[in-house]
Write a structure and sequence with these properties.
The complex is a heterodimer of chains A (about 700) and B (about 170).
Chain A (H helix, E strand, L loop, with lengths): L5 H21 L5 H17 L1 H14 L3 E5 L2 H14 L4 E4 L3 H5 L2 H7 L3 E4 L2 H8 L16 H12 L7 H16 L4 E4 L3 E3 L4 E6 L3 H7 L3 E7 L3 E2 L2 H16 L6 E5 L6 E7 L3 H5 L15 H5 L1 H6 L10 H11 L6 H4 L7 H5 L6 H16 L3 H11 L3 H11 L1 H4 L14 H4 L12 H9 L8 E5 L2 H5 L2 H13 L3 E4 L7 H5 L3 H14 L5 E4 L2 H15 L2 H9 E3 H16 L9 E3 L3 H5 L3 H13 L18 H4 L1 H18 L3 E4 L2 H13 L5 E4 H8 L3
Parallel strand pairs in A: 1-10, 2-3, 2-4, 4-7, 5-8, 7-10, 11-12, 11-13, 13-14, 15-16, 16-17
Antiparallel strand pairs in A: 5-6, 6-9
Helix pairs in contact in A: 1-11, 2-11, 15-18, 23-25, 25-36, 27-28, 28-29, 30-32, 32-36, 34-35
Chain B lengths: L7 H13 L3 E5 L2 H12 L4 E3 L7 H6 L2 E5 L2 E3 L4 E6 L2 H6 L5 E7 L3 E2 L6 H9 L7 E5 L4 E2 L7 E2 L6 E7 L5
The chains are: A alpha/beta (about 700), B alpha/beta (about 170).
Chain lengths: ~700, ~170
């Protein structure tokens, strides 16, 4: 059972409050898009020649006198470390941070064999003394307060210690020096293995990596196969982005390059652990571009609620889910795959341009295929949403109207076993008439001096919020466009998102048929826009789907691109009374220029926007996510409502009916008087036709 | 190693960036002046110079001040670059609580890429002990306790950079 730890959540929020600013500052004057495009290419080229580069690295490193060992799996790597320890008569190992050693559970293995492994990275050391696992890849002890650390230290030392971080750091310095001196073997990870000169590169801030690799006479490097790069210039390109992405630093305090043994011996253990299989996978291989900077975690709304102890097997968050599926087995990744919102925030910040969220969705497909599909979702996606049954369900819901409906268009509360779904947000009741029924009477035969467009309203607008569809049509006809409604049930996105591509294809194919024609297709829901504009084509990959994708345009972008000159003139009923803020819907944000267009229109209508904090944070609706994880959905919704309140606005504009459902329902539950409106409604109210 | 003509703009950028990372930077117009400065700084302290005599590591650990020569400075990031010949050079920069690093202004380059070839040649040498390269940018730091930045966790609490600029002020 997943539970949000309020203390950890606050600690992570405290961290990101500084991190976001530092990261932005460190990237000032750099073209992040260019640099990450370059790094992605460099990583891909290195991965393509991985086997060859490993051989070259091995040759060069052996030339320096290093012993290079290849480990098939974690067990073998652990065994190699043990044998090295025995050969050098050592019973204690000092370590600097190595994610790979977490992956192989090296410390545990060595302890079972009578060897003590001592972490020397401050955070790792604290966590180790406390008998825990790291919560964050870069900040392992972020879940602990100074009080916790003081308590852990005084237990270890048998005396009282002060609680100030500076004093604790001084104590750690003294104690860790004692740990490192006199030990025969030190183990480090590596950020890169450089093929052209046989040296390893290690990036640290504390300097423990330098001590661990130099003070003990024997140095073990434990690294996974994807760390190999062709040469110095590739290693330096990595160095250009890694610190900025990881901690918002231009550079870290220490970067060490080491070519071979400095005194007695250097062993380089190169671990595969199913990475070769991942490398051979045409869809997923880009996962191995990852340089473990953890940017994706620092921007992941779910990770920021849960931290790494819950959102990990060993590797954390979305990227961790993907690594887990190969390294620790598909089955271990199943629950983790369900934690991704699909908000794609991680993809905007990844320095290697890994399409993390897209790949997690593809992983769901594979999970369904290999491990079987959950019955309930099979019923929903295969049974109802992809067929005509969907309309029947809504028809039935409408006919039982009075039973379901409160006075204010919200539904009555669900029966007890389902309370978790609507206790934090009131759900809407189905509209008395669907959009398709209302639309024809009002807009059929409207004059079309500027040409005709088709509206794809989506199932939420069709069945719950027809007023949004009518508002959009009013704006479009007011501008002189003839409008027509594409009458089709579900675009197929929810099924695709849950890894039910069969059901998604079925639904999407029907949309393809219904949307035939040449006119532009205006979408009122960014999720439908994503499906019609991109994902559907990826699924079906036909000429027809390509043509469709080129016709799709989000409502806001259509207006700004076609009508920007007339917009200002049309608005006479400005709404000075409405203080508007704007929430960026996840899929809207992914359409180039869409959020910008929405902001232009809102400024036209309301004069200005009172920007809220984290306008791009997912509201927690995220399709079936809010049903799978209502407690997380609620926590995200609360953050959004708090941000709206602090903005001082009394109206929030959204582009997505899903966000509208979630935020409007949450505001009602919390008795917040904030009005939640779709952009089309706001424009229809302020346009003077 | 032959120094190139000094690019004052790069030197200033190096100094600004290094200072922003928490290093203290002093400029000297001759090595003698720098030596004098270090002599004053060393008064009453246990000092390890690099390249050091083959002292015990433990002795380095007890030193108060480590003096190291650095081969290059990188202006973009305020980074010192040491092409080490032995462990002592590396440890003199990390073990004592104060590190004084000397760098020639003529060896301050725009970015790491500018010395990529030189680094590669150094690291490619098959020498014993192994060739090593260190990039040092500011003092040792951690934010592992409550994300509070603390200096000097494993390495020096204070990094002093002595830039020798023979033509400069």
């Amino acid at each position: 059972m997943i539970k949000i730890d309020a203390g950890l959540k606050a600690a992570l929020a405290g961290f990101t409050a500084n991190y976001y600013g530092n990261r932005e500052k460190s990237l000032l004057g750099y073209d992040f898009e260019f640099l990450r495009g370059q790094l992605a290419e460099i990583r891909d080229a290195a991965l393509l020649k991985n086997a060859e580069l490993l051989d070259r690295f091995q040759g060069r490193a052996e030339g320096h006198g290093a012993k290079v060992l290849r480990a098939e799996d974690g067990e073998q790597a652990n065994q190699m470390v043990l044998e090295i320890m025995r050969e050098h008569g050592a019973d204690k190992l000092v370590k600097s941070k190595s994610m790979v050693s977490e992956e192989t559970r090296l410390n545990h293995f060595l302890a079972e064999n009578g060897i003590e492994a001592r972490e020397t990275d401050l955070g790792e050391w604290i966590v180790q003394l406390h008998g825990q696992r790291p919560t964050h890849m870069v900040l392992p002890a972020i879940h602990l307060t100074r009080k916790d650390v003081a308590r852990i230290f005084s237990q270890k030392l048998g005396r009282a210690v002060p609680e100030e971080p500076e004093a604790l750091v001084r104590i750690a310095r003294e104690e860790l020096r004692k740990e490192i001196f006199g030990v025969k073997v030190g183990l480090t990870g590596a950020n890169a293995l450089i093929a052209e000169n046989g040296s390893m590169m290690m990036v640290t801030n504390e300097g423990n990596g330098r001590l661990v690799s130099t003070v003990p006479p024997v140095h073990i490097v434990l690294a996974s196969i994807e760390k190999v790069v062709p040469g110095m210039s590739e290693a330096l390109a990595l160095l250009r982005l890694l610190p900025k992405a990881a901690t918002g630093q231009l550079i870290t305090s220490y970067i060490s390059f080491i070519s071979g043994p400095h005194r007695e011996a250097q062993y380089i253990i190169i671990l595969d652990n199913h990475r070769s299989e991942l490398l051979a996978d045409p869809v997923f291989k880009e996962v191995l571009r990852c340089v473990k900077c953890s940017s994706c975690l620092n921007y992941c709304p779910v990770y920021l609620l849960l931290g790494g102890a819950q959102y990990s097997h060993i590797y954390m968050g979305g990227i961790g889910t993907l690594l887990t599926a190969w390294i620790h087995g598909l089955k271990e990744s199943r629950d983790l795959a369900g934690l991704c919102l699909g908000c794609h925030r991680c993809e905007d910040v990844c320095p290697c341009k890994i399409k993390i969220a897209d790949l997690v969705i593809k992983l769901r497909e594979r999970l369904n295929h290999e491990l079987g599909r959950p019955l309930l979702k099979r019923l929903v996606f295969d049974g109802i949403m992809s067929g005509p049954q969907l309309n029947t369900v809504f028809k039935f819901a409408r006919s039982s109207g009075p039973l379901l409906r409160n006075k204010d268009a919200f539904a009555r509360k669900l029966p007890k076993p389902f309370q978790k779904y609507d206790k934090f947000r009131s759900l809407p009741a189905p509209a008395t008439e669907p959009l398709s029924k209302l639309f024809a009477a009002k807009f059929e035969g409207a004059k079309s001096e500027k040409g005709r467009v088709k509206i794809f309203a989506g199932c939420l607008v069709e069945n719950f919020y027809p007023e949004i569809g009518l508002a959009a049509a009013r704006v479009l006809t007011g501008l002189g466009y003839g409008v027509e409604l594409i009458q089709e049930g579900c675009c197929g996105f929810p099924a695709a998102n849950a890894g039910f591509s069969g059901a998604a294809q079925k639904a999407f194919s029907k949309v393809l048929e219904a949307a035939e024609g040449e006119e532009k297709i205006i979408t009122l829901c960014p999720t439908c826009a994503a499906m019609l504009g991109r994902k559907g084509h990826e699924l079906v990959n036909s000429e027809r789907s390509l043509r469709l994708s080129q016709r799709v345009m989000p409502f806001s972008r259509f207006l700004v691109e076609r009508e920007s000159a007339r917009l200002q003139k049309l608005i006479t009923k400005k709404q000075p009374e409405a203080r508007i803020t704007y929430h960026e819907s996840c899929h809207h944000k992914r359409e180039p220029g869409a959020c910008e267009a929405s902001r232009v229109l809102l400024k036209n209508a309301a004069g200005k926007i009172l920007e809220m904090k984290s306008a791009d944070l997912c509201c927690g609706f995220a399709g079936t996510f809010s049903l799978d994880h209502p407690e997380l959905s609620e926590a995200l919704l609360n953050e959004i409502i708090d941000a709206i309140k602090s903005s001082g606005a009394d109206m929030v504009a959204v582009d997505c009916p899903g966000c509208l459902l979630q935020i409007r329902g949450g505001c009602r539950e919390q008795n917040e008087k904030v009005q939640v409106s779709h952009l089309a409604e706001i424009l229809a109210r302020s346009f003077n036709f | 190693m032959v120094s190139s003509p000094v690019n004052r703009e790069l030197v200033q950028r190096f100094i600004d960036r290094a200072a922003a990372l928490g290093a203290t930077v002093e400029k000297f117009s001759s090595p003698e002046q720098a030596a004098e400065f270090i002599a004053k700084l060393s008064a009453g302290k246990k000092v390890i110079h690099s390249p050091a005599v083959a002292a015990e590591f433990k002795e380095l650990d007890r030193a108060d001040l480590g003096v190291v020569h650095c081969d290059y400075g990188i202006a973009e990031t305020g980074t010192l670059v040491g092409l080490h010949q032995n462990d002592f050079e590396k440890l003199a920069s990390i073990l004592p609580p104060i590190c004084a690093a000397v760098v020639d202004a003529g060896n301050i380059v725009a970015n790491a890429e500018a010395i990529s070839q030189i680094l590669n040649e150094h690291l490619s040498r098959n020498s014993v002990p192994a060739p090593q390269v260190s990039f040092i940018s500011g003092p040792s730091r951690t934010a592992d306790i409550e994300c509070r930045l603390c200096i000097g966790v494993h390495g020096p609490r204070s990094l002093l950079i002595l830039v020798i600029d023979k033509g400069g002020a």
